[in-house]
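Holo model, zinc ion. Inputs:
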Amino acid sequence: MKIYFHGATGDVTGSAYHVKTKHASVLVDCGLFQGGKEEKAKNRQRATLESGKLDAVVLTHAHLDHIGRLPLLTQHDYEGPIYATQATLDVARLILRDSYFLQKGDLDRENRKRARSGQAPLEPLFTEEDVLRLKPLIRAIAYNQPVQVAPGVQARLVDAGHVIGSASVELTVEEDGKKKVVVFSGDLGPRGAPLLNDPVPFERADAVIMESTYGDRNHHSLYDTAVEARKIIAKVIEAKAKILVPIFAVGRTQLLLYLLAGAFRKKTLPRFPIYLDSPLAIEATKIYGKHNELFDEEAQSMVKSGDLRENLQSAKFCPTAEDSKALNNVKGPCMIMAGSGMCTSGRIMHHLRHNLHYPETAVLMVGFQSPGTLGRQLVDGKESVSIFGEEIAVRASIHTMGGFSAHAGQDELLKWFAAVAPSKPRTIITHGEDRVRKIFSELIRSRHGLRPECPNLGDVIEI
Ligand SMILES: [Zn+2]
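Output:
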């Protein structure tokens, strides 16, 4: 078989791996390239995905960098099945709709600019119709239930512990009377983290295509981060001030709510009002609730006993713009969770504009902040920032909470790989910056005597 690498080669976006045999053609993930102009331009090289000849698509999880190019398939008349867990398919529907509207907003702005300078307008990457045409193609599969997805190709999904419904994909591929097993790690979650189960490792594979997002370092411990967050929150609550949390809608929002419920239950924090001010995060939280059978044991028992609901009574959803505006007049103590996670757009911008100049305000940064974003400026300690063209003094305290990552750190990645290493798989490292891939590959080489490969965009590997 041949595997074509259509993304996540030397960076962490655009995951898409095309497995081809004499009889079958299967795409694992179909992610969007995200980042600067150069990255985004790669999304338009759609011919490489060869949708017309595909038998099936299998998804690891519903983050945009793993599903965002799916509408390009239907745009090119793909009518085959799209396999994933039910939770992934539920979240994917939400994320793709959101992505469509974000893309449309960006494009309208760009085209107004182009019109003023006499340039022809740009076509959208995909249309709402392309998104809607995905719906009849989706096929839910459960963890650990092998399914024939194409002639001679069987897929089995196991829990990757990254976000709800996330999976590693094992393909058993039969060609010329020989069977080979190829494992795609997908994004792997941390071990021992609350709410979700740990990633399930594999014992045998002929080839492993593995992510390496944090292949160069370990995270702060989640426990230490949670203790630190609790101390900061307790202080702000006592001062009757506001805590602002720029959130990523799927994953960390639900982890934070779960940790807060735990703190209320154990009375390590007094109950205070929490406002979830993000329609996307609200919908994602409902999907987490619907699929609570995928929670870890402790979280499931908190659901069954009613403790989770009981302890989250002070959490209020704010779906409408009016709900959001009303928060300007709400007095502390309270926590406002709003998107976007890097403070590049969304409702958090308004809350920052209204509250950054108060020294009692605390801002909790729970995720990675890219260079150039407002979130990064705050983390870097800028004394004033520009929001909607207005210069705002930053007197609030800004706290970086490094341990809430949804990704496995270096040690956890190595541990996952150690389980499959004795079967001496061909090892292919993707989904990491080149510098990081090299560091991680070297660790695998020295520990297991294997020679990992780091393919580039468009490369083909024969197995
Ligand atoms: Zn992910």
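Residues 61, 63, 162, 187 surround zinc ion (CB under 6 Å). The radius of gyration is 22 Å.
Archived with the compound record.
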